[in-house]
Hints:
CATH class: Alpha Beta
Order of helices and strands: EHHEEEHEHEE
Strand content: 35-45%
Distance between the termini: 26 Å
Bound molecules: coenzyme A
Strand order of the largest sheet: 1-2-3-4-5-7-6
Oligomer: single chain
Largest sheet: 7 strands, mixed
CATH architecture: 3-Layer(aba) Sandwich
Amino acid sequence: MMLRDAVEADLPGILAIYNHAVLNSTAIWNDTPTDLANRLAWLRDRRDKSYPVIVAEENGEVLGYASFGDFRPFDGFRISVEHSVYVAEAARGRGIGRRLVESLFGPARAIGKKVMIGGITGGNAASLALHAALGFVETGHMPGIGIKFGQRLDLVLVQKEL
Length: 162
Ligand SMILES: CC(C)(COP(=O)(O)OP(=O)(O)OC[C@H]1O[C@@H](n2cnc3c(N)ncnc32)[C@H](O)[C@@H]1OP(=O)(O)O)[C@@H](O)C(=O)NCCC(=O)NCCS
């Protein structure tokens, strides 16, 4: 398994992981799957801002990916980013999520970012444990601010000083 910058040829793999999370989990608060054009626009937007999109690849297959974007679109938030990480179901528990998130710290520091923020759905034990293991601390808990599969969702905010 290797980590590297995403290229456009990775987008079908990224799309499959993303849509699996949309359809089968509360990790992404969308109800309907997206398409390749949406992920292409997303990749180009990240590149335009010099923000990384890192994929974990093995034998030509995308096993996971991580990236960060702006936390909120106001000048004062420019020292902070919000990241995301997804690992294909069959590849979980092998340390890939940990390596993907760790791979974002250097690029974030290199462009002057000071804080990395994760927005995690309440009850996502794997993500909460992964982020705690990487030194993220919980700094917010917003009960019931979302809804999916007929259930109200909590948002847990975690952050790490870079
Ligand atoms: C969260 C996610 C990215 C973790 O990826 P992963 O590759 O399986 O995680 P790793 O193997 O790197 O595990 C790293 C640490 O996370 C924790 N962890 C991972 N899976 C866990 C689980 N199911 N239960 C409890 N802790 C878990 C452990 O602390 C683990 O450290 P350890 O190996 O020393 O015990 C993955 O489960 C995933 O993609 N889930 C669906 C999408 C999602 O929730 N993304 C995050 C949105 S905020």
